[in-house]
Design a protein that fits this description.
CATH class of chain A: Alpha Beta
Distance between the termini of chain A: 41 Å
Low-confidence stretches of chain A: none
Oligomer: heterodimer
Strand content of chain B: 5-15%
Number of domains of chain A: 1
Strand order of the largest sheet of chain B: 6-7-8-16-15-19
CATH topology of chain A: TIM Barrel
Largest sheet of chain A: 9 strands, mixed
Radius of gyration of chain A: 18 Å
Order of helices and strands of chain A: EEEEEHHEHEHEHHEHEHHE
Number of helices of chain B: 31
Structural class of chain B: alpha/beta
Radius of gyration of chain B: 26 Å
Structural class of chain A: alpha/beta
Helix content of chain A: 25-40%
Helix content of chain B: 40-55%
Number of strands of chain B: 19
Chain lengths: 260, 776
Amino acid sequence: MTQGLVFNVQRYSIHDGPGIRTIVFLQGCPLHCPWCSNPESQGPVRPLTWVKNGVEETITHWMTVDQVLDEIEKDEVFYRTSGGGVTLSGGECLVQADFSAELLKAVHALGINTAIETTGAVPMRSVQKVLPYVDQALFDLKIMDPIRARDVIGDNVAMVKASFEAFLQADSVKVTPRIPLIPGYTTVPENLQQIVDYVQSVGVPEVHILPFHQYGSQKYKYLKRDYQLEDTPLLTTEEVDTIHTLFESQGIHAVVSGLE
Amino acid sequence: MIATQTYLNARPTSQIQAMKAHLFKTKRQISIERALLYTKSYQQTQGQPLILRRAQATAYILDHVKISIRDGELLVGNRTVRPRSGILSPEMDPYWIMDEIDTIATRPQDQFEFTETDKATYRKVLLPYWQGRSMKDFINAKLTPEVKGALDDRVIKLNQTDKGQGHIIMDFPAILSRGVGDYVTTLQAKIEQEPDNDFFKAALLVFEAMQRHFQRYADLAREMITTAPAYRKVELAEIASMCERLETKAPTTFYEALQLLWMTSIVGQFESNASSLSLGRMDQYLGDFYQAALDDPEIPASFLHEVLGDFYLKTNDVVLLRSAESAKCFAGFPTGYTVSLGGYDKYGQYSVNALSNEMLDIYHEIQLPQPNLSVRINEQIPRRFLNKTCETIRLGTGIPMIFNDEVCIPGFLSKGVSLDDARDYGVVGCVETTIPGRTYGLHDIALFNLMRVMELAIDDLKDDPEVTYAKLRQHILDKIDHYVKIVTAGSDIVDLGHRNFAPIPFLSALVEDCIQNGKDVTQGGARYNFSGVQGIGEPNLADSLYVIKQAVFENHELTFKHLVEVLHSNYAGEDGEALRQHLIHDFDKYGNDNAELDMECAKIFRHFALELGKYHNIRGGEFNAGAYTVSAHIPLGEDVGATPDGRKAHEQLADGGLSPMVGRDHLGPTAVLKSVSKIDNTLAVNGSLLNVKFSPATLKGDNGIKKFADFLMAFTQLKIRHVQFNVQSRETLLDAQKHPENYAGLVVRVAGYSAFFVDLNKHIQDDIIARAEHSL
């Protein structure tokens, strides 16, 4: 039986895909974004503990598809009334591509909407495995310059673009680019312009922009890791507006989300 | 201006906000006027049958109470000239007022000024007359040692021993279609047929007094014309002639219908001075009147707005004076002008009309605690009306609350109510449901503290070396049975007290079958005759049993005896506190969708409800279970020592009734709803209460409304009976606590009703702030 390494199942998510959703967070990520709000997911897929309030806690759990379905099913009535469903997130959920594919297939077969949050930083065969079972891909576009992407977050831009375009070509998948606005990293004007150019070149009319938040900062302490963005201030409304305008003025509709 | 100015377009600008300000300008004060008039009449009717004395006293009040027409009022009828006065009814209980005479102005909850002159009159005139002859005296004398024991054990509390019974919805559709005159002639004919029936005579006395009361307002309006500004002359003239028409005739317009509705309610208030003479399905029985007004080109929208706005304000004019103890349980004046909007009609169709929409729309402008609006939802609710409902909730005042037809209707069917009647249910009081115009339901007759029962059961077994989980659980169930029998006996004594001391013939004539049966509601004249007892503390009980089962009997972490000792010590010392934290955090709690735990809660409630249902009251009706606390989870918590769920001695119990214990749910609102849905809500025929708090951000924008509406549709399918929402951010409430002067108008949900936040004592404010706020 395929098992997945899960570090959280979060119910009543209303900002990550249509309707009321449950998000399944899968462990493991090839990237090392310094702003990551789920630092426990970074690195290879392996069981992990952290120390919270002086107590060591196991934060990852091997689960079978059926076990995850049991959790997902708890909010089935809410998916039905809201057109919601299940979102796989991470980490990079496609690192555990076999498990993700099996889980998405099972959820899809129940007539429940499926979404994934992905960085696309995975080999094409991993994308192909999940493609038939995904209704929506919330696709992160972060740093577009290949050298900077490699050096800062360990990303392979060519791979990301190939994955993005594979989702785009699948008619059954709705693709939503999501751009985390991280001061000094993704918000530098050249990078934003590269994103605009790219989405224009592949004909995507809409992006979601997610202003930087500090929700993950506590987790670095639990993991006894340094958090480089400790002192990075949040973006002001004006700064977000300026970025919003940058997209809109070039014909890309930009939806600000997560700013509550 | 060429067009003739009529009362319909007389006023130059809206008066609603000015009238609203006037309503809250003066401090609340006690008025002894009704008590004095009532007493004076009683002194003149000695020796007559009680029901006739009551009726004459009500009539005497209607004939002599000081009346006024306030600036801007289009609808007339007030209990007191000074707004929001507390009315005494010493005929019910003269003692608590005496005990609290000097503290009522400064008590922690619901203060009222009491002038020294009035206090003196109270001591000299009212107290001596009613001492020894009040309803309270009767009830106290009747209490059996068993009932007294259960009261002393603080397992049960009996309500309405010191004031009118209330919790009733009169047959407003009937009086609106028949008019007062028709009741007078019907009663006269009945008296001719049955000259010895005092109920008919009593009812007639009050209806005739109601006619005279209308005339007094007609006369007053005419008197006021001379000194009134020009526009007001036109309005006063209409008020005068309308009052005269309504003395006999059925209303023909929306304006007249609202006036008759309000006057009927006021007469009912004078008669019983009770909480929760609720308004029922106002959009249903006034919908045609309203539509006709909309269709009439002569009637401007501004007039309809003013008259409905005036009605809303008036429902805040009546406040209920409660004893300090009662005010703890029912804090912030839940007067109970509850209105139910929408819901199935008798054809099984969702019924919503222009007035249903307008009643939500106008609420956005007025935002006061009354009328306490509720929306009946079911699987057929049109999305447009549901969205409007959500938008109104988003205002943050907790209004409207939501009732689920898919639960309430089967609940009534299970109690022998006909399908037509069950579909016509209305909300009465806070969260109780009743069949309007057909029920005397004693919906708020008693509270039953399940946590005290558990505490006593645990103590019984503390030295039992053979104790097992099964044995403990069984012992709790046996004790529930024991006290259920007693609470029904106690409720019957109060029921009898109201029969013998407080018949309400006017109100009874507006409850179907009473005239046919020739009996007052207190005599069992109504079609449906329930008594409702609230089981309190289910969530804490389930959490506690889960801890005991796991920690003591499965994991053997500590012995039962040791646990009891720790509880008795109130988790004293470092070890005690460490254990408490362990019990709170390492064992699942109700509200987190743990089926095993939630089902234990469900089984206990089912046991309680079915046991209660075995008993019949003195009117031949069944006892129904409720699962709501209003604000009683605070005082009832004071009666309970430390409990195995990690709750310290005297801390509050879970709020609402079916809400998780404060701070113990951590998986969000969908998990809360799932836990609550495990309890068979259909069994809570008398009422249940679930509080859910959302952060304002969650409900932002059209998308917020859409997902909120979707959430409510899931609630409908999960067969949960009731839910209400507080949508104020924690920061707002904390700031309001610090700077009450800036938040005079902030309305929040307490439990089953809304109140001004600044009117609540700190305990209840803290409770509201602490209830988990769901957002992302």
